[in-house]
Specification:
single chain, 120 residues, 7-stranded antiparallel β-sheet, 4% helix
Length: 120
């Protein structure tokens, strides 16, 4: 690839929420963008950390013992094995950074599980 990736242009290509789209890879890590709104499910990722980088909006990540709020231009790393539940009152645009093949619902599965490796 010999041109920069433009977040606005990539977000303009889709409108569905809770369906991460891969925009780049580095070694075995994927950079995914997603639109989120509303409540997600409690889940964890037993074998990997998960990085949330908010581009637009405010994301709350609930933990069993508290919550963290992440605003535009802020990043938060959820440690592997830590149960969490993202929530966005209004639509949030963000980037996820995680190893290739990690399901968005961790080992929980279910109807909220998005297909992996969807490039945009």
């Amino acid at each position: 690839m010999d041109k920069a990736i433009n977040f606005s242009a990539k977000f303009a290509l889709f409108s569905e929420q809770w369906q991460p789209k891969v925009i780049a890879e580095m070694n075995d890590y994927q950079f995914k963008i997603a639109r989120l709104q509303g409540d997600f499910i409690w889940h964890d990722h037993k074998d990997t950390d998960e990085t949330f980088l908010v581009i637009e909006g405010t994301l709350r990540i609930d933990f069993r013992d508290g919550a963290v709020h992440i605003g535009p231009g802020e990043l938060f790393v959820v440690p592997k094995g830590k149960e969490h539940k993202p929530f966005a009152e209004h639509e949030v645009k963000l980037m996820l950074i995680e190893p290739r093949g990690v399901p968005n619902t961790g080992h929980q599965g279910g109807e909220r599980t998005a297909p992996n490796d969807v490039w945009i």
